[in-house]
Amino acid sequence: MTVADETALVLFSGGQDSTVCLAWALSRYSRVETIGFAYGQRHAVELSVRPAIRAKMAALDASWAERLGDDHVIPLEALGAVSETALTRDVAIEVAEDGLPTTFVPGRNLVFLTFAGALAYRRGARHLVAGMCETDYSGYPDCRDDTIKAMQLALNLGMQRRFVLHTPLMWIDKAQTFGLADELGGAPFVDLLLEETHTCYVGNRSDRHPWGYGCGTCPACRLRAEGFSKWMSNR
Question: Which cofactor does the UniProt annotation name (predicted)?
Answer without folding.
Answer: Zn(2+)
